[in-house]
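Example record

One chain of 237 residues, shown exactly as stored in the release files.
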Amino acid sequence: MKKLTRLPALAAGLALALATGTALAAAPQPFTARYQVLSDGQPLGDATIKLSAVGNGEYSYSSSSNGTGGMAAIIAASSKETTRFRWQNDMPATLSYDYKMQSSFKSKQRHMSVDPASGKVTVDEGKGPGSYAGVPGMADRNSLPLAIGLALASGKQTVTVPVGVRQGVEQQQYKVTGSESVQVPAGKFNAEKVARSDDGSNRFDAWYVPQKYPVPVKITQADGGDLTLQLVSFSRP
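Predicted structure tokens for this chain:
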């Protein structure tokens, strides 16, 4: 059984190692993006990304999904991830991350927090908290799509993102591999294709139109099953 995806583990705090000198990233503006989730070409569910400003230079970035087709609908699967980050030094720096998954037969949750003063990261999955040393501008797995989109909008073609996972920080690498025409429910776009370049075992491809949207118009990923997300609508308040 394929799982209904989190809005992919692509995500938000960002220390960039870039290939070319480019303009500074502009602070993100609030938005809501809605996606169709497919499994093997068949509708599996829907997903929504929402970015909100919460004051003092901080933002809430949430990704939620609901099963509307196949087994995901039968077991009433749903998930939600929420990142709180601070816009700092022209990058989104994660302060906290929460993940909750529910279905008719099980539930799962995870909490991660970052101490801005010490950089210490605390992770708790209900079995007792663990901790490790973070890095400045560290991302979490939820808002990586936004981090990459902001980097592309400022002209970057190669990005290294430090992502906080369960037991440490992964230096994940992404690069633009070319331009492709993409048809999704929101329309037809000439998009920049981005792929992860440092880990071939975790296939991830995303198509961005960075001067128009800060998040992808299409994503395919192997994590959690062979899943595709396609943009349905994008709006700003």
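Notes: The helical segments are 70-74, 144-153.
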